[in-house]
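Schema walkthrough. Field components (list of strings):
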Amino acid sequence: SQTIHQWPATLVQPVGSPLSLECTVEGTSNPNLYWYRQAAGRGLQLLFYSVGIGQISSEVPQNLSASRPQDRQFILSSKKLLLSDSGFYLCAWSVQGLEPQHFGDGTRLSIL
Amino acid sequence: AQSVTQLGSHVSVSEGALVLLRCNYSSSVPPYLFWYVQYPNQGLQLLLKYTSAATLVKGINGFEAEFKKSETSFHLTKPSAHMSDAAEYFCAVISAGNQFYFGTGTSLTVIP
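Field assembly_structure (string):
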């Protein structure tokens, strides 16, 4: 069966520090991969999605970037974190086609 | 463009009462629709999906949803609320272009 791993579960970082969140999927090949951010008490904001290695689409201009160095690995990064980057970050995957997305457990990021 | 609208950002029901969470979609073609549940500090979990087969879809945890084309609705129901149903619920639609669109979410409170 397919599983998705996202880490760390929680992270506290100072303003201006770098960021790297990692997400890996097991049990499937060539998945679509997604990064979402969820601000406190709010809905999901799609940040990036990828349909293949090295293929990244950005949905909103921001302080973050994403990379997909391997088929089942998706990384969210920042060179310098801002206070506004605080939130709950969710990674998700889906197979190609009209199929649902499946989510990781999320990373709670707090910027001090 | 496809979208979903969730009416009511907060819904409160008594334990044992009917749960009704509303979702309307806008689509020019028959959509694929989904309901997700999110417990605090967790990722989203797929509750059920509609993929143009039966209009009444049964999901996990006793939830079901009915696709009504004439009303462009896909409301989520459960006959008897349980305390463990307290969570955030998201409706989602996927377009023919494989774009996922999430609603803004409905927070369900169950009153003992």
